[in-house]
Design a protein that fits this description.
Elements (H helix, E strand, L loop, with lengths): L1 H46 L3
Length: 50
């Protein structure tokens, strides 16, 4: 009985870990996109001539 419970708990942990990894990946992708846009804006401002 005890072995079965611990196995279920491990499966729950791996599912939670997978979900939080996916969430983290989405967050990192979003931040990468924001940094790209900011970098492009800074380059445009630095290279802009009257």
């Amino acid at each position: 009985m005890k072995m079965k419970m611990s196995r279920t708990n491990m499966e729950d942990c791996s599912t939670k870990k997978r979900i939080s990894c996916r969430r983290l990946g989405g967050y990192l992708r979003q931040q990468k996109g924001r940094l790209y846009i900011i970098r492009r804006c800074v380059v445009m401002l630095l290279c802009w001539h009257d």
